[in-house]
Design a protein that fits this description.
Residues 1-320 form the Acetyl xylan esterase domain. The active site is at 183 (nucleophile), 269 (charge relay system), 304 (charge relay system). Substrate binds at residue 92. The chain is an alpha/beta fold and 327 residues long. It is built from eleven helices and nine strands. Helix 4 (151-167) packs across helix 5. Helix 3 (104-107) links the parallel strand 4 (83-89) and strand 5.
């Protein structure tokens, strides 16, 4: 890989116009209000995990449409008092896996909810209202002609409901909940940060789903290439596609966020190009009353792996400082 995007000094000031629909806020307010008519009905079933330091619970709750969403809740085995929590969203095509795959946050003393991704993991199906529509392989163009039928309307709603689930657990301090994720998970975390006004922190790593107009034209790597593949075949929808995606642009959601934020970016990332990440970072908190508490860590010679374990050390220290807990 090699540097292919803007130079770092230009990335640091890159503030593109975001083509937001005029009813962006109304769309999301209506979506969440409708979905809150469904009870969360959260269930936490203890499961053996073979670990001496972490207790694991198999989680099921009602997400978009009242559909059952799966997850894991990991708690430190030795705990006292309400815990700060991290809700983690997953990368493109990933499911929740098995409990011992993700234990960093519970090992550090947090309650950790790992949300399965509808239609992408092995355990949470996606009853798709757009299943009869034509789409490119993947998820970006599912329901692409109508934002009310788009895949990410359902997934972003699940993400908000996951925050509500963890806040309702007796082991969790509802005032100290952070959201996190890598790639698709980072984009979902930004959407959740824009849709949930009182989060304690957000940690998006190499976030996907940001600044669609540039992302879909600067890289030919999947998943963004799904959009160009669709429009290449369906030229008549070249105007409709960007209008639909604008409702799900994580950079627009980032403008509405107010929680402290820690981003990471790989400057050789051809999957989530650095300019799209900086678009979200530079716009982050723009609609707030005061300057946002935000940081970004660039990794100049890294691709989509970003900072990897090195950045995990940064995240542990940063989040401990924000949530006043020992890392």
């Amino acid at each position: 890989m090699a540097l292919f995007d803007l130079p770092l000094e230009q990335l640091e000031t890159y503030l593109p116009e975001l083509p937001e629909p005029v009813d962006f806020d109304e769309f999301w307010a209506k979506t969440l209000a409708e979905q809150r008519a469904h009870e969360l009905a959260a269930r936490f079933e203890p499961v053996p995990n073979g670990l001496a330091t972490i207790d694991t619970y198999d989680v099921t709750f009602h997400g978009y449409g009242g559909h059952p969403i799966r997850g894991w809740l990991q708690l430190p085995a030795a705990r006292s008092g309400p815990l700060p929590a991290v809700v983690e969203y997953l990368g493109y095509g990933s499911g929740r896996g098995v409990p011992h795959e993700k234990r960093l946050w519970a090992d550090a003393g947090y309650a950790h909810l790992v949300m399965d991704t509808r239609g992408q993991g092995a355990e949470t199906p996606d009853p798709d209202p757009a299943s009869g529509d034509v789409a490119a392989p993947g998820f970006l163009t599912r329901g692409i002609l109508d934002p009310y039928r788009h895949f990410y309307r359902r997934l972003y709603t699940d993400a908000v409901r996951a925050v509500e689930v963890v806040r309702g657990h007796p082991a969790v301090d509802p005032g100290r909940v952070a959201v996190a994720g890598t790639s698709q998970g980072g984009g979902i975390a930004l959407a959740a940060a824009g849709l949930v006004p009182d989060l304690a922190a957000v940690l998006p790593d190499v976030p996907f789903l940001c600044h669609f107009p540039r992302a879909t034209t600067i890289t030919d790597k999947p998943p963004y290439v799904e959009v160009s593949q669709y429009v290449k075949l369906h030229r008549e929808h070249a105007g409709t596609v960007p209008r639909t995606l604008a409702y799900f642009d994580a950079a627009s959601h980032a403008r509405r966020a107010s929680a402290p934020a820690l981003f990471s970016v790989g400057l050789m990332d051809h999957i989530c190009p650095p300019s799209t990440v900086y678009a979200a970072f530079n716009h982050y908190g723009a609609l707030g009353a005061a300057g946002a508490d935000k940081q970004i860590h660039p990794y100049p010679f890294n691709d989509h792996e970003g900072g990897g374990p090195t950045h995990e050390v940064v995240k542990l220290g940063w989040l401990a400082e924000r949530l006043k807990t020992a890392a």
